[in-house]
Design brief:
Length: 587
């Protein structure tokens, strides 16, 4: 295979400029953080399109490109089909739960647990869900660093170095501006991601058509079954009983995603937000993962399929543009982590510190505590990511998937059930968490034992391989969901709901019947995100245009210059449109 060219000085300059601009946004919004609602819920005044874009960006990380590009490289369009389950799940959530989350009238996703159930359940969820979220976030940082290490090979920057750099940047901009910064930064990063993946898609398509004469000839050159939408090990059972169940739970009960519903002005805006997210989730997969499919022909001898997205980018993109794609991949992870850091900070501050340590603190002190906990969460996440880097003999995604199957349902199902049904009580939730977690732990331990015992046979027996991996995951997910719901039902019927809790539940569901009304003061807020978004995009566009001149005069590459200049002017134009929009709104 032809040796891939690494990134060069212009690519490094793009990455450095991106980091500086991201921290600048956090500094800009620092002045607007006056109350806890501003820091944790963006003041409840974010436009639906901005909050929806933030939700979309927070729903995936670089890990998505690693996993699904690998699937696309190995199995074809099934990677796209798996991703298309997402729009279905978010539309279900939009119909059943989006307006209810808004009507719950809480600042953090777990804030309603005490209102709906009890203080014991509230604290149980704070401390059972936290470790899972921290581990997941550490894995995101680690996987991002692995991808970056492919491109930065030979630079002297190791995986650990890059994990520390990303973690510090995340802490900085989440610390300064809170949820408001996260949402605005998400939009900037979404624009960067969209431009990068579209450019890569177009250049990959151009390469394919140039090499094969037509797109049809290229398709006929792909391996057999590459165009089958469903194929093993990703058959119908896996799609329905694993991907669908986990995705619908994640999009309706994941703390950082649910928090986005609390940032918009109204229930109507929440529904608009859902439709936007579903549209983006439907349009994105073919653009995201076509390069992985094409790489099967362009890079047929790739040693590690996990590196396919970085490898195809290095193969096709000109100097400067590769740095932009790396920035886009970084933005996917940083958007997710920004939402996670802010949400977890809100939970530690409002759901633990203010409940158990120091009740009654002022709004100003609450923001201070929120910033301190953001730093602590960031530091612990970085340390966990570094720890994961030493477990080189483990398949981290395999482990993470099993851990989610074991602990995701008992943590997420009670949140959704608490919104939709009044029959289940606090005792039932505790039983559900215990039964679900117990079944999950037993299944995950049994699976690790069996995989270890029959690893040699799995290498030569596809059926055994399927049942101990994909088949086991599907069965384990379904059993865990049933165990959690069964435990909640048994715990509820074995003892009557106490009068105090019954009154609390009645009041809670009466609130859920009342449409959410935004406070008048919030409606009159003049804070517009257009100005800073427009300025940031335009500035990044100017920087990229200048870098394109460096590519022309130093590297003497006219093609790369043209591509980079077009990209820079595109950013400048989009930024100018946003800036003009802010001036008209203020005028």
């Amino acid at each position: 295979m032809e040796e891939l060219q690494g990134i060069r000085l212009p690519d490094y300059l793009v990455i450095i400029a991106y980091f500086i601009l991201i921290v600048f946004i956090g500094y800009y919004f620092k002045r607007y953080i006056k109350k806890a609602k501003d820091y944790f819920a963006a003041g409840n005044v974010m436009p639906w399109w901005l909050a929806g874009t933030s939700f979309f960006m927070a729903s995936f990380s670089t890990l998505l490109f690693v996993i699904y590009s690998e699937i696309s490289y190995k199995y074809g369009i099934v990677g796209i089909v798996i991703s298309w389950i997402g729009p279905i799940c978010i539309l279900l959530g939009g119909y059943f739960t989006a307006h209810l989350w808004r009507r719950a009238r809480v600042i953090t996703p777990l804030g309603f647990m005490e209102r709906r159930y009890s203080s014991t359940v509230h604290q149980l969820f704070v401390w059972t869900g936290f470790p899972l979220r921290m581990f997941d976030n550490a894995l995101k940082i680690f996987s991002t660093a692995i991808v970056m290490a492919v491109a930065l090979r030979g630079s002297g920057i190791t995986v650990i170095h890059f994990m520390i750099i990303v973690g510090i940047i995340m802490i900085a901009y989440s610390f300064l501006g809170g949820q408001m910064t996260v949402i605005v930064t998400d939009f900037v990063q979404a624009v960067i991601l969209a431009i990068a993946v579209i450019f890569l898609f177009i250049l990959t398509m151009h390469t394919v058509i140039t090499d094969y004469g037509s797109f049809g000839t290229f398709l006929s050159s792909l391996p057999e079954d590459f165009l089958n939408p469903v194929r093993e090990p990703y058959g119908w059972s896996y799609l329905i009983f694993t991907v669908f169940i986990i995705t619908v739970l994640t999009y309706n009960a994941s703390w950082s995603l649910v928090q986005k519903y609390n940032t918009v002005r109204s229930e109507k805006d929440a529904r608009k937000m859902v439709y936007l997210i579903a549209t983006l989730m439907f349009l994105a997969p073919p653009i995201f993962f076509f390069p992985g499919i094409a790489a099967r022909i362009i890079l047929p001898d790739l040693a590690d399929a996990k590196e396919v997205y970085a490898a195809i980018s290095l193969k096709i993109l000109p100097v400067g543009m590769m740095g932009f794609v790396l920035v886009a991949l970084l933005s996917a992870t940083m958007s997710t982590l920004g939402s996670e850091f802010n949400t977890l900070s809100g939970i530690l501050t409002r759901d633990f510190y203010m409940k158990k340590v120091k009740p009654g603190i002022t709004e100003k002190n609450e923001v201070v505590v929120g910033r301190v906990t953001t730093v602590l969460i960031g530091i612990v996440t970085i340390l966990l990511a570094i720890l994961l880097s030493f477990f080189r003999g483990l398949t981290l995604m395999d482990i993470m998937f099993r851990i989610f199957s074991a602990f995701g349902p008992p943590i997420m199902i009670p949140l959704i059930v608490g919104l939709l049904f009044r029959q289940f009580n606090a005792r039932g939730v505790i039983w559900g968490v215990i039964s679900g977690a117990t079944v999950g732990i037993v299944l995950i331990v049994a699976n690790f034992i069996l995989v270890g015992k029959y690893s040699e046979q799995m290498a030569v027996d596809p059926n055994l391989e399927f049942w101990l991996r994909s088949g086991w995951n599907s069965a384990a997910t379904v059993l865990n969901v049933l165990a959690t719901i069964g435990g909640m039902w048994l715990g509820t019927i074995t003892r009557p709901t106490p009068r105090e809790e019954a009154d609390k539940v009645s009041a809670f569901f009466n609130d859920l019947k009342k449409p959410f009304q935004l406070e008048a003061a919030a409606k009159e807020s003049t804070l517009s995100p257009f100005k800073i978004i427009g300025f940031t995009l335009a500035l990044f566009g100017v920087i990229f245009a200048l870098i394109s001149l460096l590519v022309l005069f130093v590297y003497h590459n006219p093609r790369a210059f043209r591509v980079d200049l077009i990209l820079g002017l595109t950013l400048l134009m989009l930024g100018g449109i946003m800036w003009l929009g802010s001036q008209k709104r203020n005028g």
